[in-house]
Predict the structure.
Amino acid sequence: MKTDLKTTPRFLAVDLLTRVAKQGTYSNIALNQVIKNNHMEVRDAHLLTQLVYGVIQRRLTLEYWLAPFVKNPAKMDNWVQELLLSAIYQMHYLDKIPTRAIFNESIEIAKRKGHAGTRKFVTGVLHAIEREGIRPISDIKDDIERLSIESSTPVWLVNELIKQVGLEKTTHMLASINEAPDQSVRVNTTKATVEEVIEKMEAEGFDVKRSQVSPVGLLVTNGFAPDSGVYHDGLITIQDESAMLVADAMNIQPGDKVLDACAAPGGKTTHIASFLDESLFGEVVGLDIHAHKVKLIGDNARRLGLSSVVEEMVLDARLISEEFDNEYFDSILVDAPCSGIGLLRRKPEIKYEKTLADSNNLQKIQLAILDKVAPTLKNGGRLTYSTCTILDIENKDVVKQFVETHPEFKVIETPTTLALKEDRDDKELTIYPDDYHSDGFFITCLEKQL
């Protein structure tokens, strides 16, 4: 039976890429929905994933290669650009796909989605690229611009990273962010041991290996973890390895009252909950300003069997004093709203959407949240601040300003069970995307001493 063109990976990729570019749709969420809704075979889902992530990750590079072949880019429909970029991506990065197959289907998509003129235009561009070849990136004389195009990273971000960690580390880091992200899961140790989960997942056909970042983390391949029996039974949850380090650093005791100030969708909340004991009145309060996101916290807690020690609330963390007394909590986590620059491998569109101005504005929100939750922490308690960005302006600079205005807080060593980066000079912990092939992350611990 002939396959409907509209259900093919290339056609779906063009539609999805157009949605991401025009509507700001999150690629990872939309991709999972498309795969599920179309009941895609593993092979087709893999190609679709390659195309979507590949084009987004390499967008600046691909646009640089396409530019000489398009005289009036402003007149080109968004979907036509995405179609051409996806074709160039396949030609350059997917060497097992014959050029003829790429051309034939791309031209058919142009014909189906457009008109005769569109088909003619796409055909002309593709054949011109094949005939003339793409211009080398080495032609770019400016070092920063060349690194920007080569890694497909905006110039402002390249400059910020070089300022922080130097050219060599930045080059290595940016080379790594365009690699495929690992699928990582956290074991719910209240229901099973790590060894038991490995055995169960392998019995379901997964290839499993232990995380080098977290003692409760696993890297899984050969399957989609949320479709597994162990997921539905609440033995695992989806979480990046770096994010698992947050609860690890908090030194939570079974009877603690804990605040997770920016909790949705509940990954860190439920990790915190796994250390608590209901019989000792341990509890974690998870906040978010949106009701639909707070619902996710509750849903995750119920699936993992942790509802008895989790209280979810719709509340802006900056209004915490309206609901809780001073010195109520033994431990507080502020996993602050941030630019998400550490997630470039998993959400590559972020690098094109964010600006330095965004980080400056977010810093004000981050400081405001820290300022408002600080009085609710007990004397001797630990405040843990974390973000999924790697920019100092949202990390070290925020901590520095907070401590300057709150001298009762002292930065202490951020611990990890597996002693990550134990030779570092800073007490804070910054995980860069190339360190362990995980998300970029920042964690610092502060102790309150009145």
Observations:
- The longest strand covers residues 377-387.
- The radius of gyration is 24 Å.
- Residues 155-176 form the longest helix (22 residues).
- DSSP finds 18 helices and twelve strands in the chain.
